[in-house]
Amino acid sequence: MRKMFYFLAFLTLLFTGCADKSPQINTSNPNIVFENDSLGKWFVLQNVVSLNREDGFVELEITGKNYSSSKQTLTYIVDWYDHNGFIVKSILVKRKIASVESGKSIIIHAVSPNANTASYKVHFGVPSEDDELRDQNVNLREYRGE
């Protein structure tokens, strides 16, 4: 009986120790697009909330968490669509780079550029060399107060 107990305990430890504990990307929201599968190794969406305000603007708040053991960087852009499905063009709509420390959450808050917005789509990705060069723009860094 004792050998059977140890055998079952060994099997339990073996199978639970080999379980895949990596975070999984939540793909249930059709308004969220992950452009790179490697984000699933460390980034998990915790909450996505949108609000159609009385003034016609759409407000959006996304919370995600870095589950890795090191600081990670991602890019995101919010595309806003009008009632006909066309992208609302604005100088405010730019791809942004965000760093998320290990074990910390990030909150992305966005408001539509005009009152004719009906929906949105958020694209998450991994920064490329072009994104990093764009982020080094002197005017942008001065605007941020860096």
Describe this entry's structure for a reader.
- The chain has 146 residues and is an alpha+beta fold.
- The chain has helices spanning 2-17, 129-135, 138-144, and strands at 32-34, 43-52, 58-66, 72-82, 96-100, 105-111, 117-125.
- A 4-stranded mixed sheet has the order 1-7-4-5. The chain has a 3-stranded antiparallel sheet with strand order 2-3-6, with no helix packed on it.
- Strand 2 (43-52) and strand 3 (58-66) form a beta hairpin.
- The chain is globular, with a radius of gyration of 21 Å.
- It starts with a helix and ends with a helix.
- Residues 18-25 have low confidence and may be disordered.
What does this entry show, briefly?
With 146 residues, this protein is α+β, with helices and mostly antiparallel strands. The protein is built from three helices and seven strands, in the order αβββββββαα. The longest helix is centred in the first third of the chain and has 16 residues, at 2-17.
Report the helical percentage: 10-25%
**Percent range for β-strand residues:** 35-45%
The end-to-end span amounts to 69 Å
Regions with pLDDT < 50 over 5+ consecutive residues?
Answer: 18-25
Biggest sheet details: 4 strands, mixed
Q: Structural class, from helix and strand content? A: alpha+beta
**Strands of the biggest beta sheet: in what spatial order?**
1-7-4-5
Q: What is the overall pLDDT average?
A: 80
Number of strands: 7
State the shape: globular
Series of H and E elements: HEEEEEEEHH
User: Count of DSSP helices?
Assistant: 3
C-alpha Rg (nearest Å): 21 Å
Oligomer designation: single chain
